[in-house]
Specification:
Number of helices: 8
CATH class: Alpha Beta
Strand order of the largest sheet: 1-7-6-2-5-3-4
CATH architecture: 3-Layer(aba) Sandwich
Largest sheet: 7 strands, mixed
CATH topology: Glycerol-3-phosphate (1)-acyltransferase
Shape: globular
CATH superfamily: Glycerol-3-phosphate (1)-acyltransferase
Number of strands: 7
Length: about 240
């Protein structure tokens, strides 16, 4: 299964959208991109499912701290500059704080009553035609097999209030690149990372419904089921290739 060659990935440096990235977020991308080029065997599929303009939610599974890097690479290769929903503690860190503020990302006070406050700026960004990147599980999966957990309702609220497409995206291999509990990535031998998007999740029948717990749960389940389906495809292909 061929991936993106280092030469092809390097060429994306000049193709990626830059407008709206902000100085520090743009600098972080420019610093990390060569690392991805040299040390990651990247395979990206499904970019055609990401609309080129207008609001869109990219919903990813969550395996590792390196998920965000792979997800940003996917968004940029899809010609979109993402706004990331991330834990608010990053904004209080000297370097990360500058990057997050510069990129116009959206802090989430996880585990507090203020967690829902992130939804308003996220919906505003979506209605303004932006791409918002979210990990619906809210944290790394605790499933022993690294399958997605039940998602939080935030992705459903954003989608139903903004009525923008929700594109399910599965990542696999990031858990080998930067295993949970480690600080430094394992760059050698080169790690294989796959990012695969599927068609937008159909939530249109829920748009005019009251946002009850049942409706939010249904929308969330559809998104997580779609992500799980994409991940199943990746893992089945890899298992099959090992048997050949």
């Amino acid at each position: 299964m061929p991936g993106v060659t280092p030469l092809e990935l390097a060429a994306w440096t000049w193709k990626m959208p830059r407008r709206g990235r902000g100085f520090w977020f743009s600098l972080a991308i420019d610093v990390l991109w060569p690392v991805v080029v040299v040390f990651v065997r990247l395979r990206v599929r499904g970019r055609q499912h990401v609309p080129g303009t207008g609001g869109v939610i990219l919903a990813f599974n969550h395996l590792s701290n390196s998920d965000t890097v792979a997800a940003v690479v996917f968004a940029l290769m899809s010609n979109r500059v993402p706004r990331i929903l991330a834990k608010a503690s990053l904004w209080r860190m000297p370097v990360f704080g500058r990057v997050m503020r510069s990129g116009g990302h959206i802090p989430v006070e996880r585990g507090t009553v203020k967690a829902a406050d992130a939804l308003k700026p996220a919906v505003e960004a979506l209605r303004a035609g932006e791409c918002v990147m979210v990990f619906p599980e809210g944290t790394f999966t605790d499933d022993p097999g690294n399958w997605p957990m039940k998602g939080k309702s935030g992705v459903a609220r954003m989608a139903l209030e903004s009525r923008v497409p929700v594109v399910p995206v599965a990542e696999w291999g990031t858990q080998d690149l930067l295993p949970r509990g480690t600080v430094l990535p394992r760059l050698w031998p080169r790690k294989r990372v796959e990012v695969v998007a599927g068609a937008p999740v159909d939530l249109s029948d829920l748009y005019d419904r009251e946002l009850t717990a049942a409706v939010l749960d249904e929308a969330t389940s559809r998104v997580m089921d779609a992500i799980t389906t994409m991940l199943t495809g990746i893992r089945s292909e890899q298992a099959g290739s090992r048997k050949v």
